[in-house]
Amino acid sequence: MGRTEELRRRDKAVLWHPFTQMADWEKDDPLVMERGEGNYLYDTDGNRYFDGVSSLWVNLFGHGRKEIDDAIRAQLSRLAHSTFLGLSHPPAIELAERLLAVAPPGLSRVFYSDNGSTAMEVAIKMAFQYWRQKGEGEGKKTFLTLSEAYHGDTIGSVSAGGIDLFHKIFRPLLFSTRRAPTPHCYRCPYGLSRPSCALRCADMMEETVRASADSLAAVVVEPLVQGAAGMLMMPEGYLSRLRAVTRERDVLLVCDEVATGFGRTGTMFACEREGVAPDIMAVAKGLTGGTLPLAATLTTEEVYGGFLGRYEEFKTFFHGHSYTANPLGCAAALATLSIFEREDVHGRVSRLSAVMSKSLEAIARHPNVGDIRQLGLMAGIEIVASRRTKERFPPERKVGQRVARKARERGVILRPLGDVIVLMPPLSSTQREIEDLVAVAGWATGEILSEETSGGGRPTDRAIP
Length: 465
Hints:
Strand content: 15-25%
Number of strands: 16
Shape: globular
CATH architecture of the largest domain: 3-Layer(aba) Sandwich
Number of helices: 15
Largest sheet: 7 strands, mixed
CATH superfamily of the largest domain: Type I PLP-dependent aspartate aminotransferase-like (Major domain)
Strand order of the largest sheet: 4-12-11-10-7-5-6
């Protein structure tokens, strides 16, 4: 038995992978990655793969980025970890200062945790306790969220989520929330055309906030892009209207920038694109450039002030984690922010976004591609059984999974969301890599769809060399 086969055998004997049907995994021959270099991953057989989903949307500047690795090593020689309960350390202080310097205006406090789910758990608990301590907790204790939302996998963040596939089974464990329809204009919840759908969804959200303001602690949204729902794009102006009505009606706005933050959309944070400054903002994923787990929840001085009081009043925010503000993670995040300061990352994302958009035009012509959604370097290709009716393929056909598996033959790693093929390359990608990524995605899509339907017209057949 070769090394790769032996590693697969050992994996299947002891591991349980996330978001994975293990009965299928046990019958498969999974890739085993052992090295990363630049925008590529290498498996145990030495094969190279372009990291087309940035290792689940976290890798910004490629694997083994020297500045980040050096910062971690340097911090390791000083302090690997110390509790943040009752103590502090320089990297956490400096990182908070620099995060706030690039954050939307008004955010002035940083609470650390270790992943996107916990950052959102912090945000939800923070909003709830804030109103309780203002004397309005009996009234303002409900959260308004979007259908098809995804905010993580802890109980509070799942309560704010709305994807039945992920969340339905846990409903008996969850607190109830109010829901507004996702402004998904390809599959409009009101059956309207795109422009009419965008207006109707924004109107309905405004009306819901106005009607429910006395009971709402916060509105919780993923700004501009609902990633896990299949790269669903908010219509232009929706977020800014939501900010206006929540401010008018004294409702907190929580923006989940876990997936959209740190340059993915072409600005440091997605909410900046509409001039929106939330009351609470969660960040994670790209914060450390894809090296170590670290997250943060940013909030305003007003919210922070609601937790101040005498010791015996117990207004303290009783939440924390053993590895809160881990110094190694903070050092990696500081190095990541330094790359943004030195390089024109946002300009590069803007240029590469245009390249991706142009390249996607060929795929859009395929008769079984229903919709292509893109903002910055976040894109989703929705595959349908019928473009006319928007009917989906039966889930047992595993079309999206098969497309991703096919792409490996041309040296590209993709991970679909159902039958939405997600493209989320590193921000350090080159123009050629973006073109090749889209070409391989198009080739793999065409190959699998040709097995499913009699429709011809395959996209361009260009592979990563």
